[in-house]
Input
Amino acid sequence: MADDAAASLYQAFVNQDPAAAISVIERVKQSGVAQAKLFDQLFAPAMSLLGGAWASGAIDEYGFTQAAVVAEQITSFVTPPTTAQDTGVTILLGTMHRDLHSIDKDITAAALKEAGHRAIDLGEDVRPAEFLERAEETGARIVIVFAQMNSTALSVSRVREMFAAGGRDDLVLFVSGGPFAADVSLAKRVGANGVVRGAESALKLVAKVTGAAVPGAAR
Amino acid sequence: MSPRGRQVLLAEGLARQGHVAPAVEACYEALRLDEGDPLVHTLLSDLFLAGDFYDEAIAAASRAIELDADCAPAYLSLGLAYDRRGGMWDQSILVWHELAEVVPDLVTAHVQLGEAFAAAAFEEEAIEAWKKALELDAHEARAMYNLAVAALKKEGMATALPGFRKAGELDPSQDDFFFALAGVYDDGTPAPDPIDVPPDRDSRLAAAFALAFEEDFFSAVDLIRLILDDNPDDPEALALAGYLYLKQEAVNEAMAVALRALAVSTKTPTAVYVLGAAFAKRPGLNRNAARVFGALAKAVPNQPMPHVLLAESLLGLQRYGQAKQAYLRAVELDPTFVRARFGLAAVLLTEGEYALAHHEIRRAAYHDTRRQGLFWQLYDVYAEARE
Output
């Protein structure tokens, strides 16, 4: 089946017929081949046949280029999606009030978004009350507060106090920044549930809380 | 020739050969004869820098500039010394500004100025400086790496990664790696005229590689076609054809012939490389690229490039920790590998390790200027102008 399908896809390339190529792909998908496997099981063997046809002179340079254009047109049908599927997990990120350091937060927010999470970046200099308000608004369960100075790191305790005052002890509070990396006990003292040590650490901690898959893990 | 001149020449000769300690001694001897020679102070500063004596390098370069404000190689040493010593960003910015004024078309001065701005957290000014460097030379890889790092800081890895890969393509080391896999090195012999190539497979293939090395792609393709007309299942010829397609941005054609080559023989490292490079150009194929480059890294474990290519694919999969290990391996194999240093800096930034990241960028700067032989270029121009 796979060999036949690859040969049909190759023929569609050579005939410069994208519609036929798509119908081959759809047929293979309906036979139960997962989207993630289409490239390896269908597209790559068809491309190998194409390369062989060019090498043997069965198709000329012009035909090869035209077939490659058709392959280009249908690539998105056989490659895994470039953006991750929405996990439905909303995460708030922000740098603590009186702290303007943003790089760590920006990189972490981008990594969470890339992994399919709904990361909402509250920016820098965020007041404790705003974390609570935005959690209520968005339905976020996880909040990551960044602080790069000792004074602002200590004041993260006010975020936890605000959550308690609002009756939201259920919110998971992660902290990130140099002071927390330097003193592991500090996170506990400010009422945090864990320390984010960079983008990959954030992905792992979120996966732990939500049960979501860690990006890049073998499927 | 005066005795002073001979002594300076002796110091220069020793320094060029990398004999640091005798060169320093020769410099001091030259200064005993004439303390006011900026060339000798400049030489000393470069030697101190090579030995990681930053304060001494700063003092020597500053003295050279005091003696002659147009001494371009002294500005280079001074700027590099400030950058590597750390914590002297204000001075560093001033020095790179000065060098850019003394030698306005010196691309590296603008790249370094950008790095000094970035270290002082003037991100916008840094980006302007790197853009200026790229205006002067569109193939300036280090400016592109820095822009990728800037994109990482603002918008994350997904935005930055194409920039790292683009910069990597500007860097000639990736092409050099392909030819190294094929056993082709620059031995100074020019590629033959295709008409003179004997009509056998090995001669044609060797000539095709030599022509491709010299970027005469059309002549190389003609020879490859002759080989494939005799044997369409020649994996090495197919792999070279794939490389030539890649160089012309024909990614699907490259992928097709590389896949064919590997269907014929899985043990064709050049085809493995072409396939991985084609995958790396396609969004969504990072997993395939990582698999291919992982195999290549195992096949040639002592080459730093496949570890870097693997690391870049792992960045695309958000496997930053594994990417870091691959970059560290590449740096271990070649501490002067600029692409690996920048990649490592990127991973360190994802871990919030700013100081270490900037350390890697500074090391990359130092090795890049060494690789270019920039100090000696500026030194020779300056010394010639004085005479």
